[in-house]
Amino acid sequence: MPRSDLFLQDGGAIGAYDRFVIPNRSLPVEIVLPHVHYRNVAEAIAWLNNAFGFVERYRYGNPMSGAQVRAGNALIMLKQMGPDERTPRELGFGTQSLTIFIEDLEGHFARAQAAGVPIVEELHETIYGELQYAAIDLDGHHWLFSRHARDVNPEEWGATVSSGAANR
Hints:
Largest sheet: 4 strands, mixed
CATH class: Alpha Beta
Structural class: alpha/beta
Number of helices: 4
CATH architecture: Roll
CATH topology: 2,3-Dihydroxybiphenyl 1,2-Dioxygenase, domain 1
Strand order of the largest sheet: 1-4-3-2
Shape: globular
Radius of gyration: 19 Å
Order of helices and strands: HEHEEEHEHEEE
């Protein structure tokens, strides 16, 4: 059966795709895999490791054109920027924000502070039940680090839950 049929059968049963996917330890399909562009990937790997404890899984290209790092349970691709691309720092504004869930969030926050990372949102608990803080990296990317503090129904803090949303 063609893969496109798997997405269309039964009114869009996308989950059927999972049964036919070949496992690949390089690119797991059960997560979103962001690609974050850096002016200098080697420098970014070292900075992210020192500041946030990200662990390099692999790098590729000669000269190096990218790498994969682990942060908590998340995997992130780091990509070498081309000469015509600009970092958020060079643009003067952010282009995205990435949330990474960290078990020892207090320790992670202390590490980032000790490394001199610009903290743009202090460690705090949100109205929607997350303990989190936000920081900016060497190229101006916005990172939000979080841990579930308590279970909160979205309606309790004013969100409107979509009628088609899965009840989790």
